[in-house]
């Protein structure tokens, strides 16, 4: 046969050569008899050897029947087919590349062949084909990628090993740029990474590592956006190796691609946030996820707050105010408006540096907030994840406040619920976020556009300052939000926050008992302490649950008198030198009247000793309970604390402070013979020259500044208000006692 073929080649008789190949194919290689098929395969190989360099002209006719035999049921025949194809390819060399896809397809099937001889033969053919591809510069990568994408999803271990080996070979060829087609095969590679075989997993790790090295070398040519969602999926894989590898890729993508990754932020956060709460068993994944989270957060910039503020005009519009931006919904970009938007974007890029990139990359804030809301609402999520969510929200309110305030009404309830979290660190971050919401200028709204909170929120923005006239409640008649001149302005959400915080304390008394003081003290650090006490006192003045009002006032008073954070506010109240401080005192006093003992302590703090004495005189008309005496006991203990050092020193000046001594003696007379009684009694025994205490009500007032300043307050009206509030409390106690008695009767019946 070889001699005959050589003669035809010498004669250039192509028709006879084709005739010989056709006979070998049709009558032998494709015969029904197995021995004929074997003979046909041997003949085709011999024919190819005889053709030599001319075999490339007849490769289609030579290869097709051999590949058909790859599917033969007889393993020996499959081996002969493999051997025949090896000889054909060895002679043709680079000429087989146009037929590479069909050869690769056949080889991928033989790689999973159960017969070891066939598998061994296919490996020889595979190595030969790899050598040819490596040394050639005519490989058709574009035509091969669809086949590779299809075969890469095979579940057979040997087929997977075959695929990975080819990817490694193609990646090593300088003239073949497989990186351009990485999005086509990346998902399949990550699936192979989860194979049960350690060898295959190792090979896949190497392949992915090579791709990542190439990405770092040439980031400008990488299609980051097309692979982002693939990584998001595999960053959530149950397999630790897949998850860690995908997370490492995500870290590099965020750092290399930068803001190109922003449109995929919601998906990335969905994958990354749960990893932040992993324990030490998954420490590596947790650390990489944390880097991803931090890097992604840094991509959000203040300019993102103005991305959608484009107008359908050829001029740059004036920057809208925060009020305007909050009153207008986000624009929905439709196909009809796309051209108009593109023109405006182009026009803006002429005026603003770097705006081309910013126009192209849009921050999907709605999606991000939805993901953050979900993770914060999920009670099964770990502490570190919740902290990360709160940090994200805080960061977004700092960088994109106008857009974020569109989501505030939906976020507010979950942020308030988070105050009941078990972790102090979570509560601290939550308070930081709530404080930012309450103080951000972007939260300022026009009248009628303020935050809605049912009937409890006033119809318009709220003034937090106390009016000069005692008895007059805070007015909401003026437009905008005003505070006393000594405090910074809060926005419309501040008052809503205070209302809902008190509601939270009212409905969840355990929170008030265990974390109430902690929460209020931290808020005093984050916001203005005067505003906080001002607004809470104003709200408690209208509180219908009198028992809660009394408890809350007691809590606020304890914080006011003992917390180091409120040192400045105590000094402000101590002297009452300014109209603002006197207004604040009046506001606090009205709410403090819910608790008689705290009212007296407020008078001690503000050095209103005569009024304190007048109040104690009224205690004889009140119902003296165990709780009442306990609070008096605590007040005596407070008088011995450093906070009231100035008060104890004023006991030396008996002439100018007669009512202070009288008030203290009044407290002494209220107390039973207890340790507090002994403590206060010993203190009063140290007062010098007791004869000077014989003072009458017409004692001349001191000429000190504080007395003159305090004289501007209508103490008679304040005393009347105290009596009115205490009468309400008395009535409420009688009602509660009546209900309890009725309940007891029902139980007896």
TrEMBL record:
Is Nucleotide-binding found in the keyword set? no
Q: Which residues form the signal peptide?
A: none
Q: Where in the cell is it found?
A: Endosome membrane; Microsome membrane
Q: Which residue intervals make up region (Disordered)? A: 441-461
Q: Which Pfam families match?
A: Vac14_Fab1_bd, Vac14_Fig4_bd
Superkingdom of origin: Eukaryota
Q: Name one GO cellular component term.
A: PAS complex
Q: Does the keyword DNA repair apply?
A: no
Keywords assigned = Endoplasmic reticulum, Endosome, Membrane, Microsome, Repeat
InterPro entries documented for this protein: ARM-like, ARM-type_fold, Vac14, VAC14_Fig4p-bd
Vacuolar protein 14 C-terminal Fig4-binding domain: residues covered: 509-687
One Gene Ontology BP term is:
phosphatidylinositol biosynthetic process
**Family per record:** Belongs to the VAC14 family.
How is this protein organized at the quaternary level? Answer: Forms pentamers. Component of the PI(3,5)P2 regulatory complex/PAS complex, at least composed of PIKFYVE, FIG4 and VAC14. VAC14 nucleates the assembly of the complex and serves as a scaffold by pentamerizing into a star-shaped structure, which can bind a single copy each of PIKFYVE and FIG4 and coordinates their activities. Interacts with NOS1.
Role played: Scaffold protein component of the PI(3,5)P2 regulatory complex which regulates both the synthesis and turnover of phosphatidylinositol 3,5-bisphosphate (PtdIns(3,5)P2). Pentamerizes into a star-shaped structure and nucleates the assembly of the complex. The pentamer binds a single copy each of PIKFYVE and FIG4 and coordinates both PIKfyve kinase activity and FIG4 phosphatase activity, being required to maintain normal levels of phosphatidylinositol 3-phosphate (PtdIns(3)P) and phosphatidylinositol 5-phosphate (PtdIns(5)P).
Protein name as it appears in the record: Protein VAC14 homolog
In the UniProt record, the gene name given for this protein reads Vac14
């Amino acid at each position: 046969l070889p001699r005959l073929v050589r003669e035809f080649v010498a004669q250039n008789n192509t028709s006879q050569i084709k005739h010989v190949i056709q006979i070998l194919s049709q009558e032998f290689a494709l015969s029904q008899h197995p021995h004929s098929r074997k003979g046909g395969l041997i003949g085709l190989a011999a024919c190819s050897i005889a053709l030599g360099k001319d075999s490339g002209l007849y490769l289609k006719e030579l290869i097709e029947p051999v590949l058909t035999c790859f599917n033969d049921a007889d393993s020996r025949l499959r081996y002969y087919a493999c051997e025949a194809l090896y000889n054909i390819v060895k002679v043709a060399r680079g000429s087989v590349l146009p037929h590479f896809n069909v050869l690769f397809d056949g080889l991928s099937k033989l790689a999973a062949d159960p017969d070891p001889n066939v598998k061994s033969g296919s490996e020889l053919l595979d190595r030969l084909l790899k050598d040819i591809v490596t040394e050639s510069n005519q490989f058709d990568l574009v035509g091969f990628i669809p086949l590779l994408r299809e075969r890469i999803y095979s579940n057979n271990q040997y087929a997977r090993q075959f695929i990975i080996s080819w990817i490694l070979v193609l990646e090593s060829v300088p003239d073949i740029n497989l990186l351009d087609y990485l999005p086509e095969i990346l998902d399949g590679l990550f699936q192979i990474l989860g194979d049960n075989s350690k060898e295959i997993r190792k090979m896949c790790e190497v392949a992915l590592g090579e791709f990542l090295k190439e990405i770092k070398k040439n980031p400008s040519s990488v299609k980051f956006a097309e692979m982002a969602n693939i990584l998001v999926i595999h960053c959530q894989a149950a397999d630790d190796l897949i998850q860690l590898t995908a997370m490492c890729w995500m870290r590099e993508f965020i750092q290399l691609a930068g803001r190109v990754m922003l449109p995929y932020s919601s998906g990335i956060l969905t994958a990354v946030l749960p990893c932040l709460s992993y324990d030490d068993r998954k420490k590596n994944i947790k650390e990489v996820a944390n880097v991803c989270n931090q890097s992604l957060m840094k991509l959000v910039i203040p300019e993102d707050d103005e991305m959608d503020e484009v107008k359908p005009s050829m001029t740059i519009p004036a920057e809208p105010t925060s009020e305007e931006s909050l009153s207008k919904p986000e624009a929905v970009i439709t196909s009809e408006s796309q051209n108009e938007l593109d023109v405006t974007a182009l026009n803006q890029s002429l005026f603003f540096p770097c705006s081309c990139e910013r126009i192209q990359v849009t921050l999907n804030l709605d999606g991000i907030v939805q993901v953050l809301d979900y993770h914060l609402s999920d009670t099964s999520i770990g502490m570190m994840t919740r902290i990360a969510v709160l940090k994200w929200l805080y960061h977004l309110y700092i960088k994109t406040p106008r857009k974020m305030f569109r989501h505030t009404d939906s976020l507010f309830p979950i942020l308030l619920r988070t105050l009941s979290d078990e972790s102090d660190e979570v509560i601290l971050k939550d308070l930081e976020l709530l404080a930012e919401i309450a103080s951000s200028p972007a939260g300022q709204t026009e009248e009628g556009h303020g935050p809605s909170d049912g009937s409890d929120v006033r119809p318009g923005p709220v003034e937090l300052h106390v009016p000069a006239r005692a008895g007059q409640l805070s007015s909401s008649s003026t437009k905008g939000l005003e505070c006393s001149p000594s405090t910074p302005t809060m926005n419309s959400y501040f008052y809503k926050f205070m209302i809902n915080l008190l509601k939270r304390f009212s409905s969840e008394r355990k929170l008030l008992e265990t974390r109430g003081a902690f929460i209020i003290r931290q808020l005093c650090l984050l916001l203005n302490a005067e505003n906080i006490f001002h607004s809470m006192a104003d709200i408690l003045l209208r509180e219908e649950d009198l028992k809660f009002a009394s408890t809350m006032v007691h809590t606020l008073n304890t914080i006011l008198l003992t917390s180091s954070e409120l040192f400045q506010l105590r000094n402000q109240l101590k002297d009452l030198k300014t109209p603002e401080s006197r207004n604040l005192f009046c506001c606090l006093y009205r709410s403090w009247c819910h608790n008689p003992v705290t009212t007296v302590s407020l008078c001690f703090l503000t050095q209103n000793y005569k009024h304190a004495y007048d109040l104690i005189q009224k205690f004889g008309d009140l119902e003296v309970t165990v709780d009442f005496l306990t609070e008096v006991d605590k007040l005596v203990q407070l008088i011995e604390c450093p906070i009231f050092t100035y008060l104890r020193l004023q006991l030396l000046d008996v002439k100018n402070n007669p009512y202070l001594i009288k008030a203290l003696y009044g407290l002494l007379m209220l107390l039973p013979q207890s340790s507090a009684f002994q403590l206060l009694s010993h203190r009063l025994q140290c007062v010098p020259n007791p004869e000077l205490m014989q003072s009458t009500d017409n004692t001349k007032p001191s000429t000190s500044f504080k007395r003159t300043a305090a004289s501007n307050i209508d103490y008679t009206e304040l005393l009347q208000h105290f009596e009115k509030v205490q009468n309400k409390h008395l009535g409420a106690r009688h009602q509660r006692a009546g209900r309890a008695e009725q309940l007891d009767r029902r139980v007896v019946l």
